[in-house]
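Duplicate of #3305? Posting structure anyway:
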């Protein structure tokens, strides 16, 4: 079971790393292109928008007098921005987060792309930490610094000075 759990963790760390790289690509691209994914339902509409380094999510309810389509639909739009990239977003508040509630039963939330990068880098960072620790802890190595203790009978690591639980016998 321990081995299966390690495979699951390694797979999740790999998927998380791929998602982080994809987020960085979308983040950089958001300064040159304006991308919208829209979902129109019978009673509400939801926009997902990547623009100027942030992911905007807008949800609002339809007004009763609005003409409704006979079926819900999805729509994707991507437009290239003209001129130089827009590195100065105009509606950001603190650190790229933004929230606005409208009186018509809708709201807008903006979350910066860097937050998704940090979230997606958590598992690969834990994997790297575990992998480095395992490599340091070789069979005859110091648990603190990884120094090869073969033949050491003093009970102290000569590299870092940490005490060793059981001194390694000379072979």
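Output from current build:
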């Amino acid at each position: 079971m321990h081995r299966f759990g390690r495979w699951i963790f390694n797979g999740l760390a790999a998927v998380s790393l791929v998602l982080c790289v994809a987020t960085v690509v979308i983040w950089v691209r958001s300064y040159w292109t304006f991308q919208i994914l829209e979902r129109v339902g019978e009673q509400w509409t939801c926009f997902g928008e990547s623009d100027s380094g942030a992911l905007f999510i807008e949800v609002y309810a339809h007004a009763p007098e609005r003409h409704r389509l006979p079926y819900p639909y999805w729509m994707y739009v991507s437009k290239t921005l003209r001129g130089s990239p827009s590195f100065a977003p105009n509606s950001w508040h603190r650190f790229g987060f933004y929230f606005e509630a409208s009186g018509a039963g809708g709201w807008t939330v903006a979350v910066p792309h860097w937050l998704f990068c940090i979230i997606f880098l958590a598992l690969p960072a834990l994997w790297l930490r575990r992998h480095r620790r395992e490599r340091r802890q070789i069979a005859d190595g110091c648990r603190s610094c990884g120094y090869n203790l073969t033949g050491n009978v003093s009970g102290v690591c000569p590299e870092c000075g940490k005490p060793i639980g059981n001194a390694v016998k000379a072979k």
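Confirmed duplicate; merging threads. Confidence is low (pLDDT under 50) at residues 84-92, 167-171. DSSP finds two helices and six strands in the chain.
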